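User: Assemble these into one structure.

Assistant: Restating your components, then the assembled model:
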Amino acid sequence: MAELLKVSLHSPEARDFYIQKILSSYENALFALQLGDSAGPPLTPALPAPSLPESSSISFGRPGSGENVISKKRKGSPTWEDEVRTFNDNGLDGNNDDGYNWRKYGQKDIQGAKFPRSYYRCSYRNAQNCFATKQVQRRDDDPTKFEIAYNGKHTCNHSASPSPPPSPEKYEIMPTHHQKLSPPSPRETLSNLRANLSVNTSNLDGDSNTAPSSFSFPSTSSGLMEDYHQLQFPNFDNELLQVYSPSFISPVTSESNIFSEWGSSQSLNFLADVDTDFEFSSLF
DNA sequence: CGAATTTGACCCCA
DNA sequence: TGGGGTCAAATTCG
């Protein structure tokens, strides 16, 4: 659709048509994500690491999650908590930091997964016999998200950044009145876009002419997402697409993490290694 | 130069 | 036997 949109920019009707198609496909994707989250076995709602910015429960294929086909468990290995969560990396929100210091001790390519799984243990494992570990893996279907599995409880008292848990409001459904927010002036927005927007296609796999498979959006510092977006595509001769679509930021996404970007984080190095995904940023 | 990460080897078990 | 988790030497980082 993006490709079609590209060749139809001259025609306002066709342009609007394809924009609507793109937006509706996003809505469908978001809806599917929500269905996926609510389906499946009930996972423990209690979250031991409350400072994580997000909390949709998704299975890792860990034993006990009961939803993944590939489920192998070593006999003597510790039991992974059922609670496995997806969370995005929100650069403005301070990244993947969950309040503990982790030290990476391994990385493995996992069969059937596009991205490797990273293994972390508590930095104070030796100093304080803290045997908490976690696994971090990028999702195949939404590379802007991570799935994190925690194992063991922290016995150390060196929790790194005692960042308070995020306010729930931040991740709630956007009230409709936000749709009434007046958009920024076109000139201002344009200059901001030129200054800040970036699209990295340098490491795209395969056909770089195909439409991007994923976008990431940073959230605003205020945590509010306005429904006014200006998207600049890299090969559109800098022609600016103004998309005003309340439905685009559908309330379906209580996971505002859909709109995220890679940020500085514990896993940034890992991310940089596998930075083959289309990256798209936008101001709000 | 110590700490953290990378990465291939190793181990265990289904 | 091979996948996944861990180890540890080599390398990089700060």
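Chain A has a mean pLDDT of 52.
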